[in-house]
Design goal:
This protein has 264 residues and is α/β, with parallel strands linked by helices. It folds into 2 domains: 172 residues, 3-Layer(aba) Sandwich (Rossmann fold); 88 residues, 3-Layer(aba) Sandwich (Rossmann fold). The strands form 2 sheets. It has a 6-stranded mixed β-sheet, sandwiched between helices. Strands 1, 2, 3, 5 and 6 form a 5-stranded antiparallel β-sheet that branches. Helix 7 links the parallel strand 8 and strand 9.
C-alpha cells in the first residue's frame, strides 16, 4: 500500500518530494527551506533571478551537493545523501546549463553511454568482450538508434558530437539523459543560447517526451514564453527561498514575482 505522504490530493503519485531542503556554504544559505511536490507526468517549472539557487537545487537532487538539512524522495524512496551514480540508477537524470557531451564520441556512442547504467555484464566480460557483452552491446546499439530516431537525430548517428549544430547538441543531451530510463528528468535552462525557431522545436520535443514516455519533468528556464507555454505549475526562488508557487499563470502575474524577477 502506497504511503499517503506520496499521494497527492487528486490521487496521483508524487514522484519528487523535497522537505525543508537546505544547503549552507559557510555563512551563506544558498537554498533555504525548499519544499517541492511534483506529481507523476507533471511538467513543473523552477524559475527565479540569476543566483536564486535553482541549479543548486538540481545539484542537491543529483548528489553533487549533500544538503545541510532536509530530505528528498523519488517515488517514495529517500535519496538524501546518495551518490550521483546511485541517484541516477534510482531514476533521476539531468541536463546542464552548459552542454556536457562527449565531444570526441559519435552521436550514437553518446546515447550508448547513457544506457551503460543498465549493462548486466561484469567488468571482465566487458574487457574480454565475451558473448554476453557482445549481445548486450548489440541490444544497446539498437535501443540507442531508436532514441535517436525519436529525437530526429538518426541521420547524425555517426557524426562526432562536437560537429552537431548547437540546437541538435541540446537534443542529444536530452536523448542521452532519457537513455538512463529516468522517472524524473531535470532540464537546466535547455533553451539557453537558442534562436526562436530552435526554442519552439525544443518546446515541441519536451511536450513529446512528456506524452510519449509519461515523463515527469522539472525545468529551470529564463525564457518565459517557453515556461508559460508548457509548465503547469511553478516555484519561484529568490535568494534561495521560495517566493511564490502554484499554477503558472497565477504565479507569473504575482506582483512579488513581477518585481523580483520579471521587472516592474
Amino acid at each position: 500500500m502506497a504511503d499517503n505522504k506520496f499521494i497527492a490530493a487528486d490521487g496521483r503519485e508524487i514522484v519528487l518530494k523535497t522537505e525543508h531542503l537546505c544547503i549552507q556554504f559557510g555563512g551563506l544559505k544558498a537554498v533555504d527551506d525548499v519544499n517541492l511536490e511534483i506529481k507523476k507526468g507533471e511538467l513543473y517549472g523552477l524559475i527565479g533571478p540569476n543566483g536564486a539557487g535553482k541549479t543548486t537545487v538540481f545539484n542537491l537532487l543529483t548528489g553533487v551537493y549533500k544538503p545541510t538539512s532536509g530530505r528528498f524522495y523519488l517515488c517514495g524512496k529517500d535519496l538524501t545523501g546518495k551518490t550521483p551514480v546511485e541517484i541516477n540508477k534510482q531514476g533521476i537524470a539531468r541536463t546542464f546549463q552548459n552542454i556536457r557531451l562527449f565531444n570526441n564520441l559519435t552521436v550514437l556512442e553518446n546515447v550508448m553511454v547513457g544506457l551503460s547504467n543498465q549493462i548486466p555484464c561484469s567488468l571482465p566480460e566487458s574487457i574480454l568482450r565475451l558473448p554476453r557483452h557482445r549481445k548486450s552491446e548489440k541490444e544497446y546499439k539498437r535501443r540507442a538508434l531508436e532514441l535517436l530516431k525519436l529525437f530526429q537525430l538518426e541521420e547524425y548517428a555517426d557524426y562526432l558530437a562536437a560537429n552537431l549544430p548547437y540546437g541538435k547538441q541540446r537534443k542529444l543531451e536530452i536523448a542521452r539523459a532519457m537513455a538512463t530510463n529516468p522517472s524524473l528528468l531535470l532540464l537546466d535552462e535547455p533553451a539557453a543560447g537558442m534562436n526562436p525557431n530552435e526554442t519552439q522545436e525544443l518546446m515541441d520535443d519536451i511536450t513529446f517526451i512528456r506524452k510519449e514516455f509519461g515523463m515527469t519533468i522539472l525545468l529551470i528556464e529564463h525564457d518565459m514564453r517557453l515556461v508559460s507555454g508548457i509548465c503547469e505549475n511553478l516555484t519561484v526562488l529568490n535568494f534561495g527561498t521560495e517566493l511564490a508557487k502554484g499554477e503558472t499563470s497565477s504565479v507569473l502575474s504575482d506582483p512579488a514575482v513581477v518585481k523580483a524577477y520579471l521587472g516592474e
